[in-house]
Structures are given as C-alpha cells and as structure tokens.
Amino acid sequence: EMINPEELNMKLIFSDFVIHVENNLTLSEREELIDYINDDSRKTQSVTEIGQTAGVLELEEEYREFPQSMKILVRRVEEAFDETHKMLELSDDYVQKIDNYWINYSCNREISYPHNHPQNCLVAVYYPKTHKKSYLSILDMPRASINSIPDDARGEVNQITMRQYKVFAEEDSLCVFPAWLWHFVQQGDVDGEERLSIAFNSS
Known about the structure:
Blueprint: E1 19-21, H1 27-37, H2 40-46, E2 57-58, H3 59-62, H4 68-87, E3 98-105, E4 122-129, E5 135-139, E6 164-168, E7 173-178, E8 182-185, E9 196-202
Antiparallel strand pairs: 1-7, 2-3, 3-9, 4-7, 4-9, 5-6, 5-8
C-alpha cells in the first residue's frame, strides 16, 4: 500500500536567519561616515598587508574618537543585536555586547574566502557605499561542501535544498546573521565602483 503524503509528518529540525535593516543614517550622516573611514591616515594605520580590511579594532578604545555618524551607527547595531537576542528567545540574564569591528575597503582577500566567527554570537554588516552587483554569500555548511543532491536533480531550490543564500548589498542597509554561518563576499570592485562596509561582532 502506498504511503499517504498526508501521513508524512515532516518537521524542520534546524533553522537559520538573515535580518535586513534599512534607513539607518541620513545622507549627510552617511557622507560624514564615508569621509571618516576613507581618511588616508586611518587607512595607513589600520589596513593590513594581506587585504584591504582594517585590523579588528576594539570598540571601547575607539568610541570617543568616533564622529557623530559612527556613534549613531553603533547605536543602531546595538539595537539590532538586542532585538535579535529577544527574537531568538535568549536568556534575559545576558545582553549582546559589541566586541569589535572592522572596515572593509573594496578588494579584500581575507573575506573573499568562506569563514565564520566561532567565538561570537551575531555579526552585523553595514554598507555606507556599495554597488548593485555586490553581495554577501551565506553558505549552508557542510551541505554547501558536498554534492549529495546533484544540481540537475534539485528542481526548484527551497529552504531545505539550497546551499547558498545571497544578500545583495544596498547602500545604508544593515545585515545581521548568526556568527556561526559560513559566509564570504566576492573580491574587488565592479566597473571601478567602490564598495565600503563596516562589520561588527557581538557576544
């Protein structure tokens, strides 16, 4: 006797998420922020030799020197982390704290390879300046690294069979996702357009 499809009680046993927050800064605030992170002296001090990522910086050590636009952004990130904490129903005995942050300047080898942030809880990425073809790829590991379902057998990709999710970066958008998710960005500029982003870790 054939199994009745209605008798198949499928349950999704794991789940992940991506949160998008728009309209974070005014245009003038964003312009001030871009000038701040593009300052030549700041790049010289912080950009590493192996990529175009500013070295990971401790937030508390830098906060007093931030322009107003950066302080506003930090508050927005803190609010997003706090709301995500509540949505995940994490303990009220703990709060999300921004541990550190770093700035990504366009071409960057360090973040163009799949990686995650195992010592943290949440990651937020803000895009003050980007281009339409820029995106952040989030991978479902280890599913993304194996080929148990051939591509030609997938049919319409769904939440269960997808191996990669693309977050297309929009200017003034903030993206929040779990730190355990593997992710990367494509390397370099597109048609000479500059891409800038600021990333934050929480724990």
